[in-house]
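From the pipeline queue, job 12 of 40. The input is one protein chain; the requested action is below.

Action: predict structure.
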Amino acid sequence: MPPDATGAGKGAFDVVLIGGGHNGLAAAITLARKGRSVCVLERADRPGGMARSSEPAAGAHVPEIAHLLYNLDARVARELGLGLLLKSPPIPAVSLAPDGRHVVIAGDAARFADGTPHPDAPAFGELNARLRRFAGLLGRLSLKSPPRFDGGLASLATMGEMAALARLGLDLKRLGKHEMREFLRILLGNAHDLVLDEMADGPLAGAICADAVRGNHVGPRSPGTVFNLMYRLGSGGAVRLPEGGMGAVCGAFEQAARAAGAEIRTGCDVVRILVENDAAKGVALRDGTTIRAGAVLSSAGPLQTMTLAGIGHFDVEAVRRARNLRCKGTVAKLNLVLGAAPEITGLRGDLAAGRLLVAPSAVAVERAFNPVKYGELPAEPVIEAVIPTLTEPSLATNGRHILSANVQHIAHTPRGGWGDAARNRITATVLSQLERHMPGLKGLVEAAELLTPADIEARFGAPGGHWHHAEMGIDQILTLRPANGLAHYRLAVHGLYLCGASAHPGGDVTGLPGRNSARQLLKDRIL
């Protein structure tokens, strides 16, 4: 049936999706493959959201925000027709050391960059393997909607949810008494103490702590950071730099959605969700166009989605919880276009193409977090950097290179605001930190683009400028994501669902929130 953009006749589409990021596209793929007519509406001029690429200098394609593929589940990738994204092997992490004795981390193994054994390698291997075993239990929960138990004990849905939890409990019991006690002992603990109980402080400990706080408004001494670390390892913890860069990831999601039959429209700014008789019936765009649909899935945050539909349609307590959601973005993105590849002291070429971490110790990671609590900028932030052109030279022309850096613990609104002085200070700070390991880096910079958390919020609509639309803490995860009473994708307005990173299971480029939300919609049989 041809779409009726005015909504004058029958519903133009079965489902309208607000937001063309990877989660919105994952939902579109899932629904379209089940025969539903789907329209994806993206405000920007191209889909991809925070996983797309930009061109700050002619011929140089940089990842705007996400620069690595974290935790894309192999089963989900195959299900969505994205198996080629897993073709690239996982890349190692390299924790850069002030003395040049960089530490290479690959799976459960750790060694120095020159190939010599790391003294804490056995302790690290045992700790990481243990965390991955525990994380595997949590990872199974990410593939399904959180249990709700609202269908009555005799309902098939409730029995299925209880059976899934029973299997989880059985798997936990199979760990053995000692392992089960260890799981419960460390679950709510902090990463700093856990790591330093096992090994000496230094670049290896710093790298683990950096991963425990990545993207969140916490330091490694914060309670629950061990859970954060385990949750991130739920799909194995693999990190990939896909062929063609992150732009290829967006392209794969978009191509799969179009191939499934979904329609994708860009330059469409949704200003209102149409609600009739407490049911979502489509959307209105800024240009006055209305698009009718039987259901609406929103990649926006819960409060943004409620506002689009009209706050009056929701329970006061639900609105309060959405407003109080912890979503303080604390990561800035610095993209650099370089005239040549930087040389990293003490690191051979192939390792330079890995995931580079500036987190010299667990203490340094905690110290970097302290200023953001007071709206100040850190003197030595934690940095995660990649140079994708070392393996994908096509991303930049004329022999140039790209360096992409995620800068942790940057306040959304620092004291004094984001004037030129504050922006220049962050850029200079990051360059100075990197130049300690990459001599001459500053002289290679041809173009620089800094996106602060405030910029990320304005450009992508991410609540608070937060990567994941909400903190990934233990109080905002699983059945509490994004908040108690809002954890099962569907909202109080019939046919209105959350499908973005604020929904279960949360952030990273996994497509799971979108895919799970679409599956929940199909399960609810409202179309």
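Job complete. The first strand starts at residue 13 and ends at 18.
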